[in-house]
Design goal:
Elements lengths: L3 E4 L6 H12 L2 E4 H10 L3 H12 L5 H12 L8 E4 L5 H13 L6 E6 L2 H15 L6 H15 L2 H8 L2 E5 L4 H18 L4 E5 L5 H12 L2 E4 H10 L3 H11 L6 H14 L6 E4 L5 H13 L6 E6 L2 H12 L11 H25 L3 E4 L4 H19 L1
Parallel strand pairs: 1-3, 1-4, 2-3, 4-5, 6-8, 6-9, 7-8, 9-10
This protein binds BIS(adenosine)-5'-pentaphosphate and magnesium ion.
Length: about 400
């Protein structure tokens, strides 16, 4: 997840830069100014309370700000993170933001401050006032907004300097130049955050071998729940013995066990660039579990890839493999193979459909040699990394 706050005096260009940032990085935009103007336009109770304060250029009370932010943020955004414009604006609001981030199991990556001298602010806002229709874009109110900024908002910077996440940008440069300065900062932030891939495909599509090779190639941690369960059995751990018993009775391994193993894997993985998940999530329930697990680590899914192979080819491949020493116990009869394909169809395809709607799924042609398919997927991952950074 990427959470950024844009800071700066009135007219610094926060709104202007926000427009491209939200699109480029798929961020959920929270501008307290815009939210307040919406409340005023709707003549709501909060809007009416805020109206005269905004018209005079003062700051709206923190209580009102908390209410409008809570209302917005609890709507699940399905984005890569949040972009805050014009919030936090008081020392108290800095603490409020900390609380919100904790509630969402995440944290603010950085506060980017656009520095612009007062006279430039005034000049820009008077110019904007010619067309904006904003009641506060006139000189007397602008001067008051700047006074409020100096008195109450500037001290907030110390909070973020102390936290070590304050970054200053020269806001007097052209819109494009400021844009470039911010992009550089965010690229750097993103290179520190995890890149997480979910790899889908029917049994026999090559997702296991491709997943392992891709993880090596991109320096990611490979997380495959099947082999993780097998390892527990091999190591004869308490969990392993439980799993074995379930297998012998032909029962499914409950989510609780799978979750514990993944949690341990995530916690043990230090200094890594991200994960490739294979064979998980397999059900809709597990898709929610994965979101929760990643959130807990302040992260989220970055890319979803589906390896596409026609059914007849899948059966052919699994049947061929069953005749070799690479035969898996679950592939040693046609009925077992068909059952696994059906399982994928009924339980996992709905998960892929959900992701298609939420994040978009990249479909990759799984026909051809191992290397050909690998190249195709690797190219998609490179594009994915580029588009995010
Ligand atoms: P809000 O809407 O946040 O206003 P603001 O902080 O005064 O900032 P502006 O929107 O005026 O400026 P901006 O930095 O977005 O600049 P823009 O990109 O438009 O808040 C309004 C009021 O709501 C506050 O006064 C307060 O009462 C209340 N409020 C809001 N949040 C609150 C909170 N958290 N707590 C309490 N009260 C709160 O650019 C300005 C102009 O400059 C544009 O015309 C643009 O085209 C131009 N421009 C932009 N960049 C450049 C550039 N690089 N070079 C040349 N021109 C540029
Ligand atoms: Mg603005």
């Amino acid at each position: 997840m990427l959470n950024v706050a844009l800071f700066g005096p009135p007219g610094a260009g926060k709104g202007t830069q926000s427009e491209f940032l939200t699109k480029k990085y798929n961020l959920f935009y929270i501008s307290t100014g815009d939210l307040l103007r919406k409340e005023m336009a709707g003549k709501t109770k909060l809007g009416l309370e805020a109206q005269s304060i905004i018209a005079s250029g003062g700051l709206v009370p923190d209580e009102i700000i908390v209410q409008i932010i809570e209302k917005t943020i609890t709507d699940n955004p399905g984005s890569n993170g949040f972009l805050f414009d014009g919030f936090p604006r008081t020392y108290i609001q800095a603490y409020i933001l900390e609380g919100l981030m904790i509630k969402l199991h995440t944290s603010l990556n950085c506060l980017i401050s656009l520095s612009v001298p007062e006279e430039e602010s005034v000049k820009r806002l008077l110019n904007r006032g010619l067309t904006s229709g904003r009641s506060d874009d006139n000189e007397a109110v602008i001067r008051n907004r700047l006074r409020e900024y100096n008195d109450k908002t500037l001290p907030v910077l110390q909070f973020y300097k102390d936290k070590g996440i304050y970054i200053e940008v020269d806001g007097t440069k052209s819109i494009e130049n400021v844009h470039d300065q911010i992009t550089q900062i965010i690229s750097h932030e993103l290179s520190k955050s995890l890149f997480n891939i979910v790899l889908f495909g029917y049994p026999g599509s090559g997702r296991g071998s491709q997943g392992k090779a891709l993880a090596r190639h991109f320096g990611l941690e490979y997380v495959a729940t099947g082999p993780m369960l097998d390892q527990e059995i091999k190591d004869d751990t308490e969990t392993g013995r439980k799993i074995n018993e379930l297998y012998e009775n032909g029962q499914l391994v409950p989510d609780e066990i799978v979750v514990q193993l993944i949690e341990k894997k995530l916690a043990d993985s230090k200094d890594i660039k991200g994960f490739i998940f294979k064979g998980f999530p397999r059900t809709l329930v597990q898709s929610y579990i994965l979101d929760g697990l990643l959130r807990k680590h302040g992260s989220s899914i970055s890319q979803i890839i589906e390896i596409d192979v026609p059914t007849l080819e899948l059966i052919n491949r699994l049947d061929e493999r069953s005749k070799t020493d690479r035969c898996m116990p679950y592939d040693n009869s046609t009925s077992k193979i068909v059952k696994r394909l059906q399982e994928h169809e009924t339980k996992t395809v709905p998960v892929i459909d959900k992701y298609k709607q939420l994040h978009g799924v990249t479909k990759v042609d799984g026909l051809g040699s191992f290397d050909e398919v690998f190249q195709r997927i690797a190219e998609e991952i490179e594009n994915g990394i580029k588009s995010l950074r």
